């Protein structure tokens, strides 16, 4: 009888994959490692690996928001800053294309 209670208790206390993933994203997970290749005490190669898994909110909390300032990830940064400059460039292109056709 005691073995059945233990089995039932263990199965109800287990976490699902979704629970584990939620905890990791909420708290953050850091994996770090260094690989060094040496030959007769001369370091030939060093590889430093740093991996962080976290939610966007947690990353921002830690000061990591590179996607907000990177043009490849933020389309607002690719927008022209000066509408007048864009119009001037369009006019120059039209002039160059008209000269090319003549």
From TrEMBL:
Pfam families: Gas_vesicle. Keywords: Gas vesicle. It is found in: Gas vesicle. PANTHER family: GAS VESICLE PROTEIN A1, GAS VESICLE STRUCTURAL PROTEIN 2-RELATED. Belongs to the gas vesicle GvpA family. This is Gas vesicle protein. The lineage of its organism: Bacteria, Pseudomonadati, Planctomycetota, Candidatus Brocadiia, Candidatus Brocadiales.
């Amino acid at each position: 009888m005691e073995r059945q209670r233990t089995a039932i208790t263990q199965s109800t206390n287990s976490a699902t994959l979704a629970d584990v993933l939620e905890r990791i994203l909420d708290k953050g997970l850091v994996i770090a490692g260094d690989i060094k290749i040496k030959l007769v005490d001369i370091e030939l190669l060093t590889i430093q690996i740093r991996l962080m898994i976290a939610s966007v909110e947690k990353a921002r909390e830690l000061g990591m928001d590179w996607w907000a300032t990177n043009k490849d990830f933020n389309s607002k940064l690719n927008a022209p800053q000066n509408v007048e400059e864009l119009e001037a460039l369009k006019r120059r292109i039209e002039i160059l294309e008209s000269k090319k056709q003549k």
